[in-house]
């Protein structure tokens, strides 16, 4: 395996490897004053996707590993395309787990999602109500920071020493403006909170503590969040739309084919233990059969079939085949 690879896709955690990442290119160096690094550990969202066991086969092929590491070295977002079930979202969790980068910050995108949803929210009504209550009680109103919460993108841009992992899931489902709106934030690695900028010149308001997406109180200075280590950003797309050229220029593009061979074996072993791929060759062969050429079958169908047949009809080959057939049905038929 190439020595330059920071992320190797082997499944075993190796958090010290992130410290071997060289300094960023001069055009991707950011000036945020670093905060302490501790972040929430990997949570159930990651373990559900990754499984609880370390698998021997690699989780990615050589080309994917090169592009993932290119994004790490160049401090650029990784745009991951591919069919549903090809492992696009899981990739972000795998990088966070292997490199010890903490809980993955997840930003699921829908048609109504706006850039500000990912950056922060400000509860102006709550602040007004509390200010009125404080006036009646003749006490000082609460600090403005109590009414601001950073979103997943805003939290990822906090100036931690090690990069956070941000998953922007299904960006192709967004409104037409969101990819363009992301451009400046992705390029500059910072954003402003106007509510704090307006108050920054008042006594005691230059540094305000706000709530992060992780639920921690974190300082924001001069009304701006500036990153120190650019986050590892994974943007996923099912290919439902094209993205503007300026966004594509700022990303590393990785297309993931559906997992087969070693990648599929790694997935099965991660969820069912060593040797599970060999013990379920009949189901794996059915799933990867060329008879299904042109049909879309996400890999979670295979995992569902293995789990159900293990706990119900393991010793009855005919029923095992029947149940697997019910679960592993194509979602659609694609044009050849």
TrEMBL record:
Residue intervals passing through the bilayer: none
Protein origin, superkingdom: Bacteria
Record-linked InterPro entries: AAA+_ATPase (IPR003593), ATPase_dyneun-rel_AAA (IPR011704), P-loop_NTPase (IPR027417)
Residues annotated as domain AAA+ ATPase: 74-260
GO MF terms held by the record: ATP binding; ATP hydrolysis activity
Region described as Disordered: spans on this chain: 12-56
Entry-linked SMART domains: AAA
Signal sequence region: none
Gene3D superfamilies: P-loop containing nucleotide triphosphate hydrolases
Official protein name in the record: ATPase AAA
């Amino acid at each position: 395996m190439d020595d330059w690879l920071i992320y190797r896709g082997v499944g075993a955690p190796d958090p010290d490897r992130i410290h071997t990442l060289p300094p960023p290119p001069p055009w991707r160096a950011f000036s945020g004053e670093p905060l302490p690094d501790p972040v929430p550990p990997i949570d159930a969202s990651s373990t559900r996707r990754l499984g609880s066991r370390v698998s021997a086969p690699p989780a990615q092929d050589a080309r994917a590993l090169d592009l993932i590491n290119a994004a790490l070295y160049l401090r650029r977002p990784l745009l991951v395309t591919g069919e549903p079930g090809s492992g696009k979202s899981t990739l972000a969790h795998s990088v966070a787990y292997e490199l010890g980068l903490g809980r993955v910050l997840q930003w699921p995108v829908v048609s109504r999602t706006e850039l500000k949803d990912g950056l922060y929210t400000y509860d102006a009504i709550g602040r007004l109500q509390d200010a009125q209550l404080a006036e009646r009680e003749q006490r000082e109103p609460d600090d403005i920071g109590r009414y601001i919460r950073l979103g997943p993108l805003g939290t990822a841009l906090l100036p931690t020493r090690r990069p956070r992992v941000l998953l922007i899931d299904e960006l192709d489902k967004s409104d037409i403006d969101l990819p363009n709106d992301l451009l400046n934030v992705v390029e500059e690695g910072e954003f402003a909170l106007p509510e704090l900028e307006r108050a920054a010149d008042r006594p005691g308001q230059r540094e305000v503590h706000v709530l992060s997406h992780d639920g921690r109180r974190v300082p924001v200075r001069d009304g701006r969040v500036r990153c120190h280590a650019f986050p590892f950003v994974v943007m996923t797309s099912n290919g439902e739309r094209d993205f503007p050229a300026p966004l594509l220029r700022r990303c590393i593009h990785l297309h993931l084919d559906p997992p087969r061979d070693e990648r599929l074996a790694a997935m099965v072993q991660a969820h069912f233990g060593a040797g599970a791929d060999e013990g379920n060759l009949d189901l794996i062969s059915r799933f990867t059969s060329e008879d299904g050429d042109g049909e879309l079958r996400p890999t979670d169908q295979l995992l569902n079939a293995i789990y159900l047949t293990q706990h119900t009809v393991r010793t009855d080959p005919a029923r095992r085949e029947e149940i697997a057939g019910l679960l592993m049905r194509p979602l659609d038929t694609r044009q050849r």
